[in-house]
Amino acid sequence: MRKLTKKLAALALGVVTVASLTACGGSSKGITIAVPNDTTNEARALLLLEENGYIKLKDGAGITATAADIAENPYNITFKEVEAAQVPNVLKDVDYAIINSNYAIDAGLNPTADALTMEGSSSAYSNILAVKEGNENTDKIKALKAALESQAVADYITEEYDGAVVSTVDNPTDGFDASVDYDALAGTTITVAASPAPHADILKVAKDILAEKDITLDIMEFTDYVQPNNVVDSGEVDANYFQHKPYLDDFNEQNGTHIVSVAAIHVEPMGLYGGKQTSLDAITK
């Protein structure tokens, strides 16, 4: 509950505390990098910096690392922890920011053109379709899952995002599940909570597929990482599509929710963007 309170406060205020860690003998110029403040996305950001040689994390820090897990910080980087959706808004005020691709796209950034460096398309961070535990095998969810795993969705992702978003569906289908009674679903509505971009846009392709069977997909857009899980866990909404599984696992643990993944749809490589700086050279000079 304490962690949820912190996230909600960050939504209202935009930023949280600044953490600065300095290694002996390091640079004194104090580059500032904004990073998401939720556990799994902050870890992704730190792992990206470690991969590029700017910091070193403690052994075993892994996908739940925070700034406290930085073992070596030779370039005296200061970390400004910000709610993930707000990171693009502080870009102009910091030297660099590490931004989730969905929020970068929503802010008018082109990840493949504007990011100075990006993480690889690790399947650990595939964005998932998630539902309340126990609803995984309902016809509604199977129909939505099939539509999102379609060739039409995979093609849309490839053509629309040019590598900024990558489909992780190994064997795309025609968008329909033979085990679903589509006649019984005709005239019904499936509700799904999603981030505006790219999730809501991708869901519009699935919406067209479901419409062929007279099923309405109601896409409900959220701009935070808390409410989409709350409304699914409460039963108000059938499913959500906005997060990766490490984030979901952490959310369930911290909040006592019971939400499960039913499909991995795409991955959004996280990128390091220049704010006051226009190249990576400023980090090491």
From TrEMBL:
Recorded hits in InterPro entries, A to Z, give: Lipoprotein_NlpA
PROSITE patterns per the UniProt record, alphabetical = PROKAR_LIPOPROTEIN
- Where in the cell does this protein reside? Membrane
What Pfam families has UniProt attached to this entry?
Answer: Lipoprotein_9
- Which N-terminal residues, if any, form the signal peptide? 1-23
Which coarse location class describes where this protein primarily resides?
membrane
PANTHER family registered for this protein in UniProt? D-METHIONINE-BINDING LIPOPROTEIN METQ (PTHR30429), METHIONINE-BINDING LIPOPROTEIN METQ (PTHR30429:SF0)
Protein name as it appears in the record: MetQ/NlpA family ABC transporter substrate-binding protein
